[in-house]
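[User] Once you have settled down, look closely at the record that follows, and write a paragraph about the fold.
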Amino acid sequence: MYTLESRVRYSECNETGTLSLVSAMNYLQDCSSFHSESIGRGFDVLAHEGLAWVLAAWQIEITRLPRFGEKITVGTWAYDLSGLSASRCFVIRDHTGASVLRAESTWYMIDTVAGKVTRIPQSEQAYLDGTPRLAMPPMPKRISLKGSAQSAPHILVTQQHLDTNRHVNNAQYVMMALDALGETGQTCCGLHRIIVQYRRQAHLDDSITPRIFRDEAGISVSLDDTAGKAYAIVRLEDK
């Protein structure tokens, strides 16, 4: 397991003084990026080889979000790299060692020259250290959108949404979904589980329309293009 030590900063907190969900997701992404760098398989190396990792989906379980000033340890490890997909787990622990957030994710490797998914090369086996998968529910294959949708105001993709790949950062889709709930006067109290499935990449100046579906177990937000096709779907479930 690769670990990253940190302390919750004021700039990472929401209005309640706790680590915001998007900041927590950024910690997970940062930890996996540093893991790649530590084994010599970072951005520059992959770019030279015409390769890139793309996040396809993840599920996150929250026990609690740490407060401002708390010391935390973020850990990550890959437990399966076979065929076309890779599976990676994450954990955030507080200063007592207790787990406050757990996550699992699925990734694909992209041939950046051909612009398509490619088989994971043998070099990526360097990630594996024998750490097993977290005891979490199976990763859902597809988020179902049930019932009628309520649309929220359109979102124009700006520079602040983008990452180094020049498309919308993974965590930003969750921020868009949460903002859409606020825009329509809806809430998801006691948030415990988040599932995100990424379908396509949104780029600068794209228009995104959130469509909100509520059912007995939670809320799903489909973030769609102008033709109604999803860039990403975000599932939010209460405790």
The mean pLDDT is 93. The radius of gyration is 18 Å. The helical segments are 21-38, 43-48, 170-183. The chain is about 15% helix and 40% strand.
